[in-house]
């Protein structure tokens, strides 16, 4: 079911204050990660990325992320080889399971990187996804 | 949109109708199609925020999102609202049901 209901106009500046333009408009992964205020990210086996090894259509690649890291506050998804690598950043409230499923575009074969924030620490995991038809 | 409670966890599935244009594609006349994409999705449970998603242009057309809530009960109200880069917004809510 679509969210076609109440479409109205919202002042642009309301959103501008929330959306992380620097991170989302960055054209390289390191710049996007810097935009997210991440200094160093620690590799972790407690982040599970469920995505296909091989995606025929890069326009729609389903990515599921589960974090077993206590106190997970945010889950960011990046595709290194995309024109703008940062895809999504999920801010998780207490009472929400750190587990999201999203469908993303992939321009070409690339690592899919997840960065999890817990307190002042950042953790990361990656999964390689081969793409045959570009989705960008 | 669907919110189903099973074994203590409520699975919320949302499908949004949106073009998610990157601003990099061209039409048949070789004109650039302007960027038009959802930047922010917020979800609440009985009015209390539970999830905020910031999105770039890399989320697929007609975005699909699943998330999971720990403290929801049957009948609780889940609301999902999106805002895009043109200032458009839409909101939808649904009651939590028990998985059949």
Binned, the helix content of chain B reads under 10%
Largest interface summary: A-B, 48 and 45 residues
Average pLDDT reading of chain B:
96
Topology order of chain B in helix (H) and strand (E) letters: EEEEEEEE
Strand content of chain A: over 45%
What would the principal axes of the Cα set say about the shape of chain B?
elongated
Strand order of the largest sheet of chain B: 5-2-1-8
% residues in beta strands of chain B: over 45%
Distance between the termini of chain B: 16 Å
- Round the Cα radius of gyration of chain B to an integer and report it: 16 Å
How much is the radius of gyration of chain A in Å? Answer: 15 Å
* Distance N to C terminus of chain A: 25 Å
Quaternary status: heterodimer
Helix share bin of chain A: 10-25%
Number of strands of chain B: 8
Largest sheet of chain B: 4 strands, mixed
Structural class of chain B: mainly beta
Verbal overview:
- The complex is a heterodimer of chains A (136) and B (100).
- Chain A is mainly β.
- Chain A has helices at residues 12-16, 21-24, 29-35, and strands at 8-9, 42-43, 47-50, 54-57, 61-67, 72-79, 86-92, 96-104, 110-118, 121-133.
- The longest helix of chain A has 7 residues, at 29-35.
- Chain A is globular.
- Chain A starts with 7 loop residues before the first strand and ends with a strand.
- Mean pLDDT of chain A is 90; it is low at 1-13.
- Helices cover 0% and strands 52% of the residues of chain B.
- The model of chain B has no long low-confidence stretch (mean pLDDT 96).
- Chain B contains no helices and eight strands.
- Chain B has a four-stranded mixed beta sheet with strand order 5-2-1-8, with no helix packed on it. A four-stranded antiparallel beta sheet of chain B has the order 4-3-6-7, with no helix packed on it.
- Chain B is mostly beta strands and 100 residues long.
């Amino acid at each position: 079911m679509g969210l076609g209901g109440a479409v109205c106009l919202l002042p642009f500046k309301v959103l501008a204050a929330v959306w992380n333009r620097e991170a989302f408009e960055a054209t390289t992964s390191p710049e996007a990660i810097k935009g997210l205020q991440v200094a160093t990210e620690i590799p972790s086996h407690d982040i599970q990325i469920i995505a296909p090894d091989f995606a025929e259509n890069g326009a729609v690649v389903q990515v599921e992320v589960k974090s077993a890291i206590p106190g997970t506050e945010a889950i960011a998804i990046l595709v290194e080889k995309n024109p703008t690598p940062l895809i999504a950043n999920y801010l998780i409230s207490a009472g929400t399971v750190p587990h999201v499923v999203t469908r993303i575009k992939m321009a070409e074969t690339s690592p899919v990187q997840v960065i999890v924030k817990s307190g002042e620490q950042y953790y990361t995991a990656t999964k390689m996804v081969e793409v045959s038809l570009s989705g960008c | 949109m669907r919110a189903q409670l099973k074994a203590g966890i409520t699975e919320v599935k949302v499908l949004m109708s949106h073009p998610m244009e990157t601003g990099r594609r061209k039409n048949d006349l070789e004109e650039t199609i302007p960027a038009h994409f959802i930047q922010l999705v917020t979800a609440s449970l009985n009015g209390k925020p539970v999830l905020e998603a910031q999105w770039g242009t890399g989320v697929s057309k007609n975005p699909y999102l699943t998330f999971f809530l720990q403290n929801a009960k049957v009948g609780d109200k889940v609301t999902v609202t999106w805002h895009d880069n043109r200032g458009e917004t839409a909101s939808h809510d649904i009651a939590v049901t028990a998985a059949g």
